[in-house]
Amino acid sequence: QVEGVMRRNGEGKIFAYCAITNVTELHNTRSALQKTTEELQHLLDQLPVGVGIYELAQRQIIIKYLNERAYEIFDMKRPEPQNGENALVKQYPQGHLRQLEEWMKKTPQQISTDDVVRAQKSDGRFFWLRNIATILELPGQNPVCYAVMSDITDQEEMEREYRRQNELYTLLLRNSDMQIMDYDTQEKKLTYSLKNSRGERSKRTVENL
What we know:
This protein has helices at 24-45, 68-73, 84-91, 94-106, 153-175, and strands spanning 2-8, 14-20, 50-57, 60-66, 110-120, 126-136, 144-151, 180-184, 189-195, 201-207. The protein is α+β, with helices and mostly antiparallel strands. Strand 5 and strand 6 (126-136) form a beta hairpin.
């Protein structure tokens, strides 16, 4: 690396004063760091979960990073680099941003959360999002949120349907005079319920059928 200045002396002659520095080690370090960053980026893009890094600066949230899966979860397109961070914030679901911002504004120096929330995709469709986040605020620095996100809509809908069916089954047991049987094909076990004269039900099980 060469740095220099030009000077003219009293006789009108021009002199160049140069400083030459060997920056080979610095260049190698930067190249190694860039390679590591690219490898980490590639690794994060292969994950089956969304990864996001958010910063709260001057009471406004900034999206610092999203991996490929996060874009897919929210049904967003990766903005062109020349459009900057503002273009990403505009298409990002505002409800999720407000939730993250609320957490980051009231957080102590460090907090971790694991919540299932009703979120929106960029086109307004709702889905169930599991959001595991760690919010860290170091002295003299802005709060930063590291989030791992999963679309668990199918799982959540199945669990809700199971709970609904279970509630209906319980209601049927409570109000019906019928003998109700349930056979577990894996355990080869029969469970049946009988209602006595006082309206009380008792369950009995027969195994190894």
